[in-house]
Every structure is written in structure tokens, then in C-alpha cells.
Amino acid sequence: MSLHHYQEDFMGIDRFFQEAVYHDQTDLNAASTVEVELYEHTCMYPTFAEIARQSGHPEVAAMFDAIAREEGEHAELVQKLYGELEVTDTPETQEAKRLVATIEAEMEKVASDPRGLRRALETALEVESIEATKTYPAFAALARQQGREDVALVFDEITRSETRHMNWVQRALDTLVPA
Ligand SMILES: [Fe+2]
Ligand SMILES: [Fe+2]
């Protein structure tokens, strides 16, 4: 996965991006979803909230906190269907977590540069857009094809939630951090 929508790299914030991996088996898509949603819940969005808080944008921080909470709920919705899926981090998730830790260690530097919050918002927009328009609709369609209507309904619900996230982040980018 590479990000091409935005030219500017700032301390690798765009490399926080992590997405669920497509499989041709619904169960594997579910496990990948839990892995990524937990990463977003515990790692990526709490750090984005911290960047926003320390950059003096408490309303953006509150939005990232709310998104972080809901990503945890997405993981739970899927886990509930399967009864505690066994989830291990892929090397990509491990690398993303390592990058987040480096940003945490340099939080003051990141938050004092306006590019920090802007890149966090742009990365969040990319993540949410792909999840809302590609990944989860595809997972729902495959689950339906494979006769797992229960799983498909959960992916439908997650898709709606990611669409809301996408719209919140877009609004924050448009109004709170003018270019
Ligand atoms: Fe999510
Ligand atoms: Fe989301």
C-alpha cells in the first residue's frame, strides 16, 4: 500500500496506514479485520488524538478519540460472531506499531509543526475512504456469496460507520486545518 494522494512526507505519518488484507475466505477477512481495527483502536487513532491535543486542536482530538472508540467496537462486533478469533499481528502491523512508537517518542516535535496534524488527518482520510468504499463492502459481498449473512450484516454496519468517519475527517480537514 502506498499513498499517492499527497506529496509531502512528514516523519512517516502516512506509513501508519494499515488495511485489512483481502482473502477469498470470509473467516480470514474477519481475522484481518480484527487485527487492523484493534491496531487503529489502540495505536493509530490514540496517537493522532495526541497530536491534535498537543497542537491545540481539542475538537479534532475529540473526533480522533471517538473514532478510536468505534474502531474498538468494530473489532468487537466481528469477534462476537466468531467467539474470540485468534489474531496475531502481521509484520506490516508490527512495523506500523513501531512507527507509531517513534512518533510518540517525538511527539513535541510532531505537534509543534502544523504538518503533523495535517498529515494525520490526510492519512486518516485515506484509511477511512478505502475501508468505507472498497475493503468492507468487498468483505460483505464475499460473506454473502459464501452464505454468511450474519457476517455480511456486520460488514455492512462497519461500512456505514467507516463512511461516517470518512465524512468527519473530511470536514475536519476542510474546516479546522485550512491549507
Ligand atoms: Fe473501523
Ligand atoms: Fe474508521
What does this entry look like structurally?
- There is one protein chain.
- It is built from six helices and no strands.
- It is mainly alpha-helical.
- It has a single domain (20-175), classed as Ferritin, core subunit, four-helix bundle (Ferritin).
- It has helices at residues 26-54, 58-82, 91-105, 107-111, 114-145, 149-175.
- The structure holds fe (ii) ion (2 copies).
- Residues 67, 71, 128, 131, 162, 165 line the site of one fe (ii) ion (FE2).
What attributes characterize this protein structure?
0% strand, mainly alpha, 6 helices, 179 residues, binds fe (ii) ion, globular, Ferritin, 74% helix
Q: Approximately what portion of the residues adopt beta-strand conformation?
A: under 5%
Low-confidence stretches: none
Structural class: mainly alpha
- The figure for the number of domains is 1
Please outline the helices and strands:
Blueprint lengths: L25 H29 L3 H25 L8 H15 L1 H5 L2 H32 L3 H27 L4
The structure holds fe (ii) ion (2 copies).
